[in-house]
Inverse folding.
């Protein structure tokens, strides 16, 4: 039983990281309608940038913030230099997926060429732990959960309480109409790529902290549970991705603990496929879509 | 509803020799069109005549292949839609005329995106006095509304922009005859009377003529008739040409009158 409780604790911590990544992935998709597979490789880049900063004796948390900003900038540049010009020239959605897959592979190889293929680590983040309801969390896990909760709340307030956030949702819902209201939808797209990149960077560093040891496959491996979380929540819906992240985290950690950790991803994907057969529009189906944020 | 009286009115929107399409092949060609200040101008014609394409080319959505567009004398050819909004051009598309994923209140707030917080609050109150039926629906998501409520939200949203010129693409499409009548007579005509210039594309030709000052008939991408609406309605032969040209619309008209 305690094994199960511990697994739930790990599931929540892992779910927090997945949610951070999945929300970033889904916000950008919801607004620009481009499936950005490069996201995984950007996450790897984030982990290695974090490594450089930690090497300069920065704390991992400061590194997380700095990397989030840097990856945010790279994400905007990626959109401006590659994605947006292709969209303007009428590239098909399928063509764009191929481009983002290719860019991701190139980026992953560049990182490997510079940093080498060996496993890396930021080092152990202390070993004091905090008990909550019988579950044991490391201080690092609690910090990451706290960061995720704060980021999600901030995102919620941005999207629902500010004119800019409403403009983002309006752009996601109906781009032409948004422009007819005077909304500069290209700027809104930039902002979506920025937010998405920042969440990607934060998730990359948070992931490197939680898995302790990582290599160049970090982002590519993580992309699958993250997309699973986004799809589970209904693609393009940030609240769905938050909950999807938690579900995927719990399912993978509990099967890992009770069965065999090497089947984690298989089980996550199995659950995803069954869920989609039952509810093709994601966890909440049509009922949730009435309350969705990004269409 | 007369307009052919004496002094030439100021022109809010002028279109000259417009050609437009989606590829390189023009769907619309050689169109000259004027919307005088504070008047309602209708463009009628059968399905596929290029009415929507004309509007979309004016608004920078469809591909403009040639011609010139001026707004109150200033050249706005090829200006993107969000810049036109700043110049006071309001647009209600035929389909997707609301933000489905937003609440009614938020739809109106987006309509007033360009104004200051104070102006927005004032226009919000004013818009709700025009559409009191929207008050109990403010917190509803638009995708849960009926067709009539959606159209009302769409028109309320565009009024929040306080447009100098309003471009409406088939505002009655998909609405019941009573609702169509209400939209055209109580909303479009009232706007015209309040001094807003309106460019209206409408398949229901007679209904459109009744609320317009001037009407154009488009067939296969070209303007084939242009006259004061009242003249067309009063002259049996013109009326016949107009309704004949509007084609299938005439049949629909019979049902809605």
């Amino acid at each position: 039983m305690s094994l199960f409780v511990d697994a739930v604790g790990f599931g929540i911590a892992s779910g927090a990281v997945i949610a951070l990544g999945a929300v970033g992935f889904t916000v950008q998709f919801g607004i620009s309608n481009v499936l950005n597979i490069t996201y995984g490789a950007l996450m790897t880049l984030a982990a290695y940038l974090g490594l450089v900063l930690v090497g300069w004796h920065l704390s991992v948390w400061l590194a997380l913030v700095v990397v989030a900003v840097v990856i945010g900038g790279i994400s905007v540049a990626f959109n401006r230099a590659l994605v947006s010009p292709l969209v303007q020239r009428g590239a098909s959605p399928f063509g764009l997926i191929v481009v983002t897959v290719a860019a991701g592979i190139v980026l992953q190889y560049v990182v490997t060429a510079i940093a080498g293929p060996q496993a890396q680590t930021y080092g152990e983040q202390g070993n004091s732990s905090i008990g909550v309801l019988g579950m044991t969390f490391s201080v690092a896990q609690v910090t990451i959960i706290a960061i995720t909760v704060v980021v999600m709340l901030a995102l919620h307030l941005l999207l629902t309480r500010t004119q800019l956030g409403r403009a983002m949702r309006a752009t996601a819902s109906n781009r032409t109409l948004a422009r007819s209201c005077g909304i500069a939808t290209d700027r809104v797209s930039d902002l979506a790529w920025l937010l998405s990149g920042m969440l990607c960077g934060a998730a990359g560093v948070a992931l490197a902290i939680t898995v302790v040891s990582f290599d160049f496959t970090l982002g590519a491996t993580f992309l699958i549970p993250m997309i699973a979380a986004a799809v589970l929540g209904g693609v393009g819906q940030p609240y769905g991705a938050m909950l999807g992240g938690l579900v995927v985290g719990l399912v993978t950690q509990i099967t890992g603990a009770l069965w065999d950790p090497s089947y984690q991803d298989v089980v996550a994907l199995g659950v995803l496929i069954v869920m989609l057969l039952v509810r093709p529009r994601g966890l909440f189906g049509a009922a949730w879509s009435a309350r969705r944020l990004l269409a | 509803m007369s307009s052919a009286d004496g002094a030439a009115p100021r022109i809010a929107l002028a279109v000259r020799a417009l050609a437009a399409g989606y590829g390189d092949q023009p769907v619309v060609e050689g169109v000259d069109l004027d919307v005088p200040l504070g008047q309602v101008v209708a463009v009628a014609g059968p399905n596929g005549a290029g009415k929507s394409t004309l509007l979309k080319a004016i608004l920078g959505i469809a591909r403009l292949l040639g011609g010139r567009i001026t707004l109150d004398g200033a050249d706005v050819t090829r200006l993107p839609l969000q810049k036109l909004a700043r110049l006071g051009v309001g647009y209600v598309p035929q389909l997707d005329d609301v933000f489905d994923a937003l609440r009614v209140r938020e739809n109106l707030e987006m309509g007033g995106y360009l104004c200051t917080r104070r102006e927005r609050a004032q226009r919000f109150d004013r818009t709700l006095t025009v559409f009191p039926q929207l008050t109990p629906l403010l917190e509803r998501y638009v995708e849960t509304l009926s067709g009539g409520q959606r159209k009302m939200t769409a028109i309320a949203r565009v009024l929040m922009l306080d447009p100098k010129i309003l471009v409406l693409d088939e505002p009655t499409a998909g609405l019941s005859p009573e609702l169509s009548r209400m939209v055209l007579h109580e909303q479009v005509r009232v706007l015209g009377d309040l001094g807003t210039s309106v460019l209206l594309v409408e398949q229901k030709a007679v209904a459109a003529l009744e609320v317009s000052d001037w009407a154009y008939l488009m067939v296969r991408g070209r303007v084939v008739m242009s006259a004061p609406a009242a003249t067309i309605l009063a002259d049996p032969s013109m009326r016949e040409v107009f309704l004949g040209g509007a084609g299938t619309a005439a049949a629909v008209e019979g049902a809605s009158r």
Q: What stands out?
A: Chain A has one domain: 2-289. Residues 2-289 of chain A form a domain with the ABC transporter involved in vitamin B12 uptake, BtuC fold (CATH 1.10.3470).
